Amino acid sequence: MTQTKVKVKLGENNYGKAEVNLMKINRDSPRHEIRELQVRVGMIGDFDAAHSRGDNSDLIATDTVRNTIYGLAKEGFTSSPEEFGKELVAHFVKTGAKVTGGFMEFTEHLWDRLQVNGQGHDHSFVRQMPKRTGRVESQDGKSFKVTSGIEELYVLKTTESGWEGYLLDERFTTLPETHERVMATFVTAKWEYNEGSVDYDAVWTKVFKQLQETLTDHYSPSLQNTLYLMGEAVLSACPEISRIWFRMPNKHHLQYNLGRFGLENNLEIMHVDPEPYGLMEGWVERA
């Protein structure tokens, strides 16, 4: 039995290349600099014929997209990954007959210099845990919306944190109140910018430092409160940022019961419980 086809049309779509792993080494002096990115480029435009009729006329091959990322990294990529994203999107709008806009997303793996006799080595590095992220998008290849971020910033404080005053008179509540606990979280954050010229590298470094400093400067009655104070501090320190979003899981470090063995445990021996975990998310915005 032949099935009757319904009438359809192509909706929002894009195509490009993902997980392009790029490292650029600046060898202009004996003290080398390195940057390592995983890049995704997506193009938007008039691609209806390719989808509905299989007509690939004037389409840029995704293999070409990959080659372009490496080629333009050689010729450009002299400052931030965000600026490199602008270069890439503008290039594809210019060279692709059917491309009207697009986006570039990146994850940057951070490297620090190996320390030798108290000095950073000229050409030996160690990869760091946090990752820098970002997205650059444009509808015309000329004006851009930029979002920057950070992932896997694992922070912990061994004191000055608690959880009290919550709903206790509830059937399934068993957790006791405490004013002394270990608090740990993986900070994921992304932020948007006000209009104007931005030094993306400088702002990212400032946010990275501010998040760490804010963790230390207050007693935390909840992870929610720390999320809010981090956002407030970042917006106070960075006028370039319009708002910032956080995702902060509560990585539980639980006091292990050593009393069974006649041993006292004064919050010294902890069981790190990976799941399940509390999860806090939210935007902090300028009022």
TrEMBL record:
<feature type="binding site">
    <location>
        <position position="250"/>
    </location>
    <ligand>
        <name>O2</name>
    </ligand>
</feature>
<feature type="binding site">
    <location>
        <position position="224"/>
    </location>
    <ligand>
        <name>5-hydroxyisourate</name>
    </ligand>
</feature>
<feature type="active site" description="Charge relay system">
    <location>
        <position position="62"/>
    </location>
</feature>
<feature type="binding site">
    <location>
        <position position="63"/>
    </location>
    <ligand>
        <name>5-hydroxyisourate</name>
    </ligand>
</feature>
<protein>
    <recommendedName>
        <fullName>Uricase</fullName>
        <ecNumber>1.7.3.3</ecNumber>
    </recommendedName>
</protein>
<feature type="binding site">
    <location>
        <position position="62"/>
    </location>
    <ligand>
        <name>O2</name>
    </ligand>
</feature>
<feature type="binding site">
    <location>
        <position position="181"/>
    </location>
    <ligand>
        <name>5-hydroxyisourate</name>
    </ligand>
</feature>
<feature type="binding site">
    <location>
        <position position="250"/>
    </location>
    <ligand>
        <name>urate</name>
    </ligand>
</feature>
<feature type="binding site">
    <location>
        <position position="62"/>
    </location>
    <ligand>
        <name>urate</name>
    </ligand>
</feature>
<dbReference type="GO" id="GO:0006144">
    <property type="term" value="P:purine nucleobase metabolic process"/>
</dbReference>
<dbReference type="GO" id="GO:0019628">
    <property type="term" value="P:urate catabolic process"/>
</dbReference>
<dbReference type="InterPro" id="IPR002042">
    <property type="entry name" value="Uricase"/>
</dbReference>
<feature type="binding site">
    <location>
        <position position="224"/>
    </location>
    <ligand>
        <name>urate</name>
    </ligand>
</feature>
<feature type="active site" description="Charge relay system">
    <location>
        <position position="17"/>
    </location>
</feature>
<feature type="active site" description="Charge relay system">
    <location>
        <position position="252"/>
    </location>
</feature>
<feature type="binding site">
    <location>
        <position position="181"/>
    </location>
    <ligand>
        <name>urate</name>
    </ligand>
</feature>
<feature type="binding site">
    <location>
        <position position="250"/>
    </location>
    <ligand>
        <name>5-hydroxyisourate</name>
    </ligand>
</feature>
<feature type="binding site">
    <location>
        <position position="63"/>
    </location>
    <ligand>
        <name>urate</name>
    </ligand>
</feature>
<comment type="pathway">
    <text>Purine metabolism; urate degradation; (S)-allantoin from urate: step 1/3.</text>
</comment>
<keyword id="KW-0560">Oxidoreductase</keyword>
<feature type="binding site">
    <location>
        <position position="62"/>
    </location>
    <ligand>
        <name>5-hydroxyisourate</name>
    </ligand>
</feature>
<comment type="function">
    <text>Catalyzes the oxidation of uric acid to 5-hydroxyisourate, which is further processed to form (S)-allantoin.</text>
</comment>
<comment type="similarity">
    <text>Belongs to the uricase family.</text>
</comment>
<dbReference type="Pfam" id="PF01014">
    <property type="entry name" value="Uricase"/>
</dbReference>
<keyword id="KW-0659">Purine metabolism</keyword>
<dbReference type="GO" id="GO:0004846">
    <property type="term" value="F:urate oxidase activity"/>
</dbReference>
